Amino acid sequence: MSPSNPSRPASKIAGIRPLLTAIIPLLPTLAIALLLFVLPLILFGPVSLGGRSLLPTDNLFTFEPYRSAAASLGVERPHNGLLSDLILENYAWKRFIVQALRQGQLPLWNPYLFAGAPFLANGQHSALYPLSAIFYLIPLWRAYGLFTVIQLGLAGLWAYLFARTLGMGRLGALVTAIAYELSGFMLARVVFPMIIAGAAWLPLILAMVERIVRRRPLAGRPASLPWAVIGAIALGCQVLAGHIEILYYTLLITAFYAAWRTVDEGAGEGGSARWWVAFVGQRAAWIGLMVGLGLMLGAVQLLPLYEVVRHNFREGTATLAQVRGWAYPWRRLLAFLVPNFFGNPAHYSYLDLFSGQVVRRTEPIYWGIKNFVEGGAYLGLLTLFLALLGVRGRRVAPFVVLALLSLSFIFGTPLYALIYVLPGMRQIHSPFR
Prior knowledge:
The protein has about 425 residues and is mostly helical. It has helices at about 10-25, 25-45, 45-50, 65-70, 85-100, 135, 140-165, 170-180, 185-190, 195-200, 200-215, 225-240, 245-270, 275-295, 300-310, 320-325, 380-390, 395-410, 415-420, and strands at about 110, 115-120, 215-220, 220, 345, 350, 360, 365. It is globular and about 75 Å long.
């Protein structure tokens, strides 16, 4: 028997050293990515890994025939009556899709609605959205919680990537990511899976726009194509998520941000008129390619949806004055500081400060103009404080302008006319989104 080679262990260590050298710098980023999924998992643990469901099945007892059996089953009232859409609408869609797939059919047509209606073309069911596979592989009652955790985790991950692309440190980017994934907008709209699914991809799209504008190097060389492809995939996923309103807003934000950053980046370098044409044209071409490819990836959902929208009775049914009347009232600004200032649909008691007694009611305590879901816009006091500290500098300017424009739109100022005249906006009657 030949003696063992004493140099073999050393050679093995030398062999894995390049791998360790590549992995070790990534460990902080991987830890942060894991944290961004763990946080929503903690929040939704009972309905994703536990034995409970995110579906508000107790809301069924407010409707017949379930209401007649409520007393005998000891059901007094639903925990949150505002969540009924999730069980009455989205669950019905998902169940219809699952039944059709099990029968080897595509859910093109819904025979249960009136005399029948197009189903797949609707889009809001997210039937073609890649992550909707969760609903087709595991029981529906559990799938909603797991889908929500993954979707919020992705929202945070993409927000972290965008913040890092902008040059933020790890801590600042982490705060940004948490503020986005656990914002009032996201958490209040868990009742609408297609909205949180669509909104989750916005930061990744903007991150790719930023990388295209700056021609962020890849493998040591300036690059545009990889970022355009990644951005196209993100936009395609957003299209397939099925909420056309979120898609429309994303396209408007992308166009605004791309134009601002292109001009700003070019101004920093300077050049002749010919140089400007080449500079702007190159970036516009790559961003246009990204958007075009993204819409093509989602065309399987977008084109049928367009055909259905053409027959929508809502076209032109609301005037500009009416739509502005549905916006937030100015007192709604208080909810940016205190999310439950106007009450909460899940609260049935309150503390009377004058008597010191807890007063219980049979109806939820809510006195806001908009319902809690549509009014959910809380970002966190720390987020607002840090935003005020950071409102300076050229790099922050597009976000400040975008925030001011968005606030002017959701509060129904005359500036809303700027987007009301855009194609398709007459069908959107929810400026508060």
